[in-house]
Amino acid sequence: MTRHGEFRDILLLLLLGTVWGGSFLLIKISVDTVPPLTIAAVRLAIAAVCLAALARALGQRLPDSLRGWSIYLAIGFFGNTLPFALIGYGEIHIDSGVAAILMAGVPLFTLVMAHYFVPGERTTVAKLAGISIGLSGIVVLVGVDALGGLGAQFIGQLTVLGAAFSYALVNIFASRIRHLPPAANGAAAMIGASLWAVPASLIVDQPWTLTPDTRSLAALLALGLISTAAGNVLFFRIMSLAGPSFLSLVNFIVPVMGVFWGWLILSERLGWKTLAALVLILTGIAVVRWGTGIGRRGVSTARKDGTKGL
Hints:
Mean pLDDT: 84
Shape: globular
Distance between the termini: 29 Å
Helix content: over 70%
Structural class: mainly alpha
């Protein structure tokens, strides 16, 4: 690859990390006047329309069988509808930066499950060390003493960790699915997720009764167009240009940018626990990367490594 190509790929990766990291800020703003289920429904519907149009423009066909759509209904629920709603609920009670750091547990959870469910992905000493370091960061952030209180903040943190686990579960499942070209894959997943989220929002939230403010509506529109639709386009572009191993490095950027946006826009406080957890989790991911030999082998898929669109 030329130096120009390397510089381009790095810029695109930084842009993707910035976009996905900013999603936690946008969720935090949206959830002030819009319920989590409706946030998930609107951003997914916007992304579904945009990605379906992109797939059509590229001549990529969507699934044409009931079995094909059933797979994307499952991926859409566990990979988008459920975690989007859980993150939204969690951010009612915790800062957006804290949510971004907790979501960095996705690659750690993925590695643990891959040991049991993905052939050839056995846990090594280096992987185990990285997972232990990363999980210790989560413990520092949540706080052992929170287990005794079970207050709203702890429930919010636990909810976001549930979203991270749901993402990791889909990573294991989706790593074996390559039925469609990338844009069509993204469109099918967004459509499948919308088929869950939109009816749930209509039944539970009755969005016609809501009175969202302009700030929340603007953040919600940005979530759908930028974080979800444009984020997926960037994801596929980097995948085609630089490959999955390079793309997986976005896991280092997203939590940092999530903390940055929360501090810059919402003046969220950066306490020692937040910074210590961020360092520990990023260190854990780095050790896991080193233990899997990424950069030397380049054989892991982005989904298996834990890369996930927010």
